[in-house]
Amino acid sequence: MPTTTATSTRNRFRRGAALTALALIAPIACGRAPDPPDAPPTAPPNIVLIYVDDLGYGDVGAYGAVADLTPNIDRLAAAGLRFTDAHSSAATCTPSRYALLTGSYAFRRNADILPGDAPLLIPPTSRTLADLLGDAGYATGIVGKWHLGLGDGDVDWNGAIAPGPLELGFDDVFLIPATGDRVPTVYLEGNRVVDLDPADPITISYGDPIDDAPTGRSHPELLRQPADDQHSDTIVDGISRIGYMAGGEGARWRDQEMADVLLDRAVRFLDDHQADPFFLFFSFHDIHVPRVPHDRFVGRTGMGSRGDAIAQMDWVTGELINALRTRGLDERTLVLFTSDNGPVLDDGYGDDAVEALGTHQPSGPFRGGKYSAYEAGTRVPTIASWPGTITARTSDALVSQVDLLASLARLADVPLGPGDAPDSADLLDAWLGQSDQGRQELIEESFTLALRRGRWKYIRADAADAQTWIADDKGIESGLLDVDQLFDLEQDAQERDNVADRRPEVVNELRTALQRMVDAAGTRPGFEGSD
Ligand code: NG6
Ligand code: CA
Description:
Helices cover 20% and strands 15% of the residues. It is of the alpha/beta class and 531 residues long. Bound molecules: 2-acetamido-2-deoxy-6-O-sulfo-beta-D-galactopyranose and calcium ion (CA).
C-alpha cells in the first residue's frame, strides 16, 4: 500500500515519553508489583481494531450463539476481556463510524446512512483517532469498509479522490468506499480506484439510470439473489446494487473474493509495519448484505449465507490473530473486536438468512436489532485482547465506541486538545479490564435518541420518522414511538415493560438530561469546542 509523507512529517517516536500508565498496567494485570521507576519505559502497544458489519450480540458463541459459528472469536474471548454491555455509538453504520473516529456523537452532525457518492462527512480539520495515533508515532492503516463519504461533493472516481481517509490521518488506505450493496463496487487504494482502465471510466448516479445496462428490475433472471426494489439498480457480479454505475468493468470487485482480498491487504500492512507501532482499522464487509461468502464457506454452517458469512468472518479474524502471533506481535498488540451495529436478517436480498435461521438468535437476549432504539441496536459483542497484559474475564462495564478515542489517546500518551473529541470519555481502565467502572450515562443513537443512566433506559418519543420503514419492513422494531419509553434494565433487560407512566419523575429527569447533552457542544469534561 502506498505511504504518504504524512507519517514522516509527524513526530514518529514519542514512544519513550512518559508511558507511566502502561508501565503500571502490565504488572498489575499479572498480579506483580509495578516495575521500579528506573525501568525502561514500556512502549505503547500496537492497536488492531477488528470492526465487523452488522454482527449481533447473539451471533458469537461466547455470547450464547447456539451454533458453533465462531471458534476463533470464542478463543479470543476466552483468553481476553469480554464485555456484556459494550455499545456501538449508533444502530447503523455511518453514525457509528463517525463517532468511533471523531469521538463525537453523530447526531451533532446529523449523520445518517450515506449514499455511495456522498461527500466526506468528517471535516478534515477534525482530530480523528487516526490523527491522534499518528501524532503518537503510530503507522495508521485502514482496510475495508469506509462509508463515511469521499470527496467534496462531486466526486470523480477516475482521478484522485479527496478528501478521504488520507486527509483524516490514515497513512495506508485500502477501501470499500461505501457498502457492499452500493455502487461504486470497486476498491480504492490510497485515493484511487484499483485496476481502473482510463479507457473505461466510471460514472455513478444515485438519481437516474446512466445507460440501458441490465438492472435487477429489468433482468431479474441475471441475479444470484433476488432483491427488493431499493437494491435493484445496476447488476455487478450477479448482484443488483443500490445506485447506478457505468464503466470501470475491470475494476469491479468479485464478492466471493472480498474477504481474502481484505485479509491479504491487512497482512501486508502488518508486514510493512512490524518495526513500528501501528494502528490497523480492519473494517469488514462481512456480515453485511450482499452475503456472498467464498465457495469454501458455502454450506459450512447449515444456516444459509448469513451463517456462512459469519463463519468466513470468524476465519478471517482467526487469520489476523495468527498473523500477529507468527510475527511475534501478539504480546505487543491490543486487539479490539466489535461490530458497528446490531443484527439484521433480511436487509434487502433474498439470501435465505430468515429461512435458514433455525433457533439461532442474532440479538441474543435483547430486543430489536440493527436500526433499533432497543438494546440490540447498539449492544454488540466486544472483546479486548492483549496477551500478557489483559487477563481473561468478563466485564459488565457500560462502554461505548465513542470513548475509544479518548481512551486510546491515554494509552498512546497523546493529550487531547480542548476542541477534540466532544463526547469521548477516557475509560482506558475499563477497556483494559483494570476497572469495572464504565460510563455513568450514554446516549444510544437510532431513529431517535435513548439515554442510559444506571438501571434506567429512556427512549425519547418523537414524531414518526419517514425512514423507519427501513426497519419495519425487515421485521425489526425501530423503537421510535410517539410516547416516551422507560425501562428498568436491571429487572427488564428485554425492554418489554414500559414504566414511563409509573415513573414520570425519572422520565422527566432523563428527558431533561438528554436535552441538555444534545444542546451542549459536547459532553466530555474539559471540552471547549463549539460546532
Ligand atoms: C439501508 C439499506 C440496507 C443497508 C443499510 C446500510 C435499503 C432499503 N436498505 O438504506 O440494505 O445497506 O442502508 O447498512 O436501502 S449499514 O450497516 O451500512 O448502516
Ligand atoms: Ca453496519
